[in-house]
Amino acid sequence: MPIVLARVDERLTHGQVMTSPALATLKINGIVIADGAVCQDPLTQAIYNASIQSADYDIKFGNHYTPPEDLLSFLRSVDREKRRFLVLFRDLSSVLLAIQKGVILSELNLGNFTSRHPEKKALTRGFQVGPTESEELKKLHWLIGFLYFNDLGSKGLPYSPLKHAWENV
Amino acid sequence: MIEVVLVCHEDLAEYFLKVAEFLLKSGENCQTVAIREGERPDQHKLLVEKALKDAGSAGNPILILTDLFGGTACNVSLPYLEKDRVEVLSGVNLAMLIRALTMRVRKPNLSLVELATECARYAIDGIRVGSSMLSLFSDPKAKKGGKKNAPNG
């Protein structure tokens, strides 16, 4: 799999991602936005494409858009030797969907998410989950093995694993 | 008059406006929107929509100033672009904001895109690398190999 980094971020591409030193640290050369809504939204794609051009780091192969259920087919369609992708998912259910369709992830970065549930709990400042997301996290932890929180911050890629932090949600 | 709406991360918009008002010695008619971590994207959208609705209630065109191009504040503003009605200018700095607030009054006939272009020019013009200005401070006599002057004071 040419996935170097998989991240859940409800804002998908934004400043925190585009200015992250992790892009250079991991030599990422393409961004895959695995989101069905954006696939059907040319305006948002145009905004994301413009922003990638002004990124702090040259992302040679630019942005790609695919629904999460088609992520595996997309990854099979590219030259896997040369691609080093950052894959962005809007939510945890999209990650589960991609995995159910055959995508293999060895780790998952939990960036930004805000549950709509009234009894949501903040696992980090930017990641808030309700009961549904808590269940999804448990499944993902079982399927992937390593989940970690990280704001793609100043040190490049500082891992902050908070294993089982969601169990009390 | 062209309305100005500041859309920035966290409290940046409010502080920009506060400092601009301090420098201009006047209260300014300017909406601010804070894009905060821990809020959902649809909440950001609602905040921008409300600010645009308030700012545009008199039917005036609106200039949105945002911070980082490609950041959430900019991304959430760009879908509201509308020719001669709503313009978005990214990379806000204090010079840009002050120019927008003063020029909209001083030159009320400027179109929205003319005001945005002028603000962008002024904002970029205000960015200088200090050391590139050293030659302006150097003593021309000293440069010609004359005797060294004692420092002033």
The total tally of domains of chain A equals 1
Q: Note the beta-strand portion of chain B.
A: 5-15%
Radius of gyration of chain A, in Å, reads 15 Å
Radius of gyration of chain B: 20 Å
Q: Which stretches of chain A are low in confidence, meaning pLDDT under 50 for 5 or more residues running? A: 153-158
Q: Give the C-level CATH assignment of chain A.
A: Alpha Beta
Distance between the termini of chain A: 33 Å
User: Major sheet of chain A: size, sense and barrel closure?
Assistant: 8 strands, mixed
Structural class of chain A: alpha/beta
Provide a count of the helices of chain B.
Answer: 7
**Mean pLDDT level of chain B:** 90
Strand content of chain A: 15-25%
Write up what this structure looks like:
The complex is a heterodimer of chains A (169) and B (153). With 169 residues, chain A is α/β, with parallel strands linked by helices. Chain A has a single domain (3-168), classed as Fructose Permease, CATH 3.40.35. Chain A contains seven helices and eight strands, in the order βααβααβαβαβββαβ. In chain A, strands 1, 2, 3, 4, 5, 6, 7 and 8 form an eight-stranded mixed beta sheet that branches. In chain A, strand 6 (121-122) and strand 7 (127-129) form a beta hairpin. The longest helix of chain A is centred in the last third of the chain and has 14 residues, at 131-144. The model of chain A is unreliable at 153-158 (pLDDT under 50). Chain B is 45% helix and 14% strand. Chain B has a four-stranded parallel beta sheet with strand order 2-1-3-4, sandwiched between helices. Chain B is globular and about 65 Å long. The model of chain B is unreliable at 146-153 (pLDDT under 50). Chain B is built from seven helices and four strands, in the order E-H-E-H-E-H-E-H-H-H-H. Chain B has 153 residues and is α/β, with parallel strands linked by helices. In chain B, strand 3 (62-66), helix 3 (72-77) and strand 4 (86-89) form a beta-alpha-beta unit. Chain B has one domain: Rossmann fold. Classes of the chains: A alpha/beta (169), B alpha/beta (153). At the A-B interface, helix 1 and helix 4 of A face helix 3 of B.
